[in-house]
């Protein structure tokens, strides 16, 4: 993977979601008539978000030479459920997308565990050097967290207004996942494999 400015990389990864959130705040109380159909501000913000996300992913791919499988999967889900949201003029489809993403990730990790394998180790083993036992622990924990986030999203979008769901989905769930992963780095340190220091040639 080619190196890229970390600030630019973060902007391309997080920028589209932030744009969606800010645009939603700006037009959430508006309605727009497009092709004879009236759409809410939320649906319009969703439709604007899709090409911005795809453009950011394309730029990231051109800069780094690769795109993570998770990013591709998320983009596909955004496009599919964004299209369903617009087609049926029903914002519930886009809200369900978050549940399905987390549920699929939990299922993928869970299936691997049934075979006593770590899907995470297969996907990230080249990035993070850790013993197999550590990968198995992290996989079990992350599968439970993804399942919990899927349930939490269902509860939030079904019981709370869109004004609550949008910031929770945009910031709350990612923050919870980030804090969880940060905590795992601390608790799984004994399983990390230290890289041997570079040997110094004899003089």
UniProtKB/TrEMBL annotation:
It comes from the Bacteria. The keyword Transmembrane helix applies. The keyword GTP-binding does not apply. It is found in: Cell inner membrane. GO terms for cellular component: plasma membrane. InterPro entries: YciB. Pfam families: IspA. It is a multi-pass membrane protein. The chain crosses the membrane at residues 7-27, 39-61, 68-88, 100-117, 138-158, 164-183. Keywords: Cell inner membrane, Cell membrane, Membrane, Transmembrane, Transmembrane helix. Plays a role in cell envelope biogenesis, maintenance of cell envelope integrity and membrane homeostasis. Belongs to the YciB family. This is Inner membrane-spanning protein YciB. It comes from Rubellimicrobium thermophilum DSM 16684.
């Amino acid at each position: 993977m080619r190196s890229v400015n970390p600030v630019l990389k973060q902007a391309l990864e997080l920028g589209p979601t932030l744009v969606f959130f800010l645009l939603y705040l700006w037009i959430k109380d508006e309605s727009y008539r497009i092709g004879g159909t009236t759409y809410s501000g939320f649906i319009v913000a969703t439709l604007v978000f899709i090409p911005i996300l795809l453009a950011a992913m394309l730029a990231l791919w051109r800069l780094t030479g690769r795109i993570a499988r998770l990013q591709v999967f998320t983009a596909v889900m955004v496009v599919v459920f964004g299209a369903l949201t617009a087609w049926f003029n029903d914002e519930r489809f886009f809200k369900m997308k978050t549940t399905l993403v987390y549920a699929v990730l939990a299922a993928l990790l869970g299936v691997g565990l049934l075979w006593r394998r770590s899907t995470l180790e297969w996907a990230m083993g080249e990035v993070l050097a850790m013993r197999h036992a550590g990968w198995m622990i992290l996989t079990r924990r992350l599968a439970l967290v993804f399942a919990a986030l899927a349930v939490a999203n269902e509860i939030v979008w079904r019981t709370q207004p869109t004004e609550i769901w949008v910031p929770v989905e945009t910031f709350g769930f990612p923050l919870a996942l980030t804090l969880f992963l940060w905590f795992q780095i601390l608790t799984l340190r004994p399983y990390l494999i230290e890289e041997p220091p570079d040997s110094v040639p004899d003089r």
